[in-house]
Amino acid sequence: MNRKNNFFKDLIGLLLLFFFLILFLMSDTLNNNEMLNDIPRAWINVNTIFLSIVIEAIPFILLGVFVSALIQIYVSEDTIQRFLPRNAIVALLPAALLGAILPLCECAIVPVVRRLIKKGMPLSVGVVFLVAAPILNPVVFASTYFAFRSETTNTILYSRMGLAFVLSIIIGGILYSIFKNSNQLRSDVTVHHHHHITNIQKPTFFTRIRDVLHHAVDEFFMMGKYLIIGAFIAALFQTFLDRAILTTIGQNDYSSTAVMMVFAYLLSLCSEADAFVASSFGRQFTDMSLVAFLVYGPMLDLKNTIMLFAFFKSRFVITFMITVTVVVFAAVVILFGFIL
User: Fold this and answer.
1) Which residues sit opposite 312 in a β-bridge?
2) Distance CA 195, CA 190 (A)
3) Distance of alpha carbon 248 from alpha carbon 266, whole angstroms
4) Burial of 270 by CB count in 10 Å (0-12 exposed, 13-18 middle, 19+ buried)?
5) Cα–Cα–Cα angle for 82, 85, 86, nearest 5°?
6) Mean pLDDT of all residues in the chain?
7) What is the pTM of this model?
8) pLDDT tens-digit series, residues 125-164
9) How far apart are the C-alpha atoms of 93 and 173, rounded to whole Å?
């Protein structure tokens, strides 16, 4: 039943995307057609903004899902653990560094971290990997760079990467001080495990290619749904929200930061694509709020909150959510208020 519902959701998402794409390709014809002159110009503007975000983001999503699929199929949890020290404190820095080379989206990172913790990884190290990997990787670096092609590119890009690296270690340290290495996993959860290459099972080349493509397609459609929803909401906001209200909220550092963090949580965008949605707000919101959006969203959003509650104990998840929210907000305020 769930599979059938997911199929229809994917189908609706694809149909909506093709509908907007047709409108985009036929925009000149539509503009010259007297029968369609009654269509409000605002909706044509929504379509233009929506498509510009989606078209820019899709190449990075495709790159991200294929790299993620290769890692999922070829890199086992045992391989990852060999690069991490067993000591919980000593391993915080290597965990953040490892997150910088493994482009795993927040959609996929929660079950991976759960499996690593079950295999003996310290809880605090798993937390660092959980919040660092979705941001600190080459795909997200590239998408952020191309999304902000202006004089503020370096500020937003390096603020995002620098904060993600430092805050992942701080968040891991805080949760270690609270929970130590106690077991915070739910014991009654069964999850699907993706197949990895092992000494026992050695699939053929074509089987590996099939598995990679299957995983990439699944992840692309899962991420694509959130991208389409996020891009559409962003387009509606920019078209219909009163400019005076948007300017008032957006130009105040504290209110704009809080609003963009809530926006990042609810939209649940993929980290490979969120920079393009954030850049569409560049004229209305401050750099400080945009960085908060880009750091907070991949660490904590609606969809990974649901997965966290499914895999981890409620007390741990609530503590994690509060810690991430407070630490990100405070760090962004300190960075832009006293340093930059």
Assistant:
1) 185
2) 15
3) 21
4) buried
5) 105
6) 78
7) 0.74
8) 889 989 998 899 888 999 999 988 775 668 899 999 999 9
9) 10
Ramachandran category for residue 180: left, alpha or beta (phi over 0 → left; psi -120 to 50 → alpha): left
In degrees to the nearest 10, what's the CA dihedral of 208, 214, 220, 221?
180
Q: Are the C-beta atoms of 116 and 81 separated by less than 8 Å?
A: yes
Phi, psi values for residue 123, rounded to 5°: -55, -45
Token couple for 222? 């899962």
Q: CA 312 to CA 175: how far, in whole Å?
A: 14
Contact (Cβ atoms closer than 8 angstroms) between residue 217 and residue 267: no
Structure tokens at 67: 């790299």
Beta strands (DSSP E) in 35-152 are none
AA identity, residue 171:
I
Structure tokens belonging to residue 163: 């904060």
122 residue type, one letter: P
Considering Cα of 199, then 205, then 211, then 216, what sign does the dihedral take? positive
- Is 319 buried (19+), middle (13-18) or exposed (0-12) by CB count in 10 A? middle
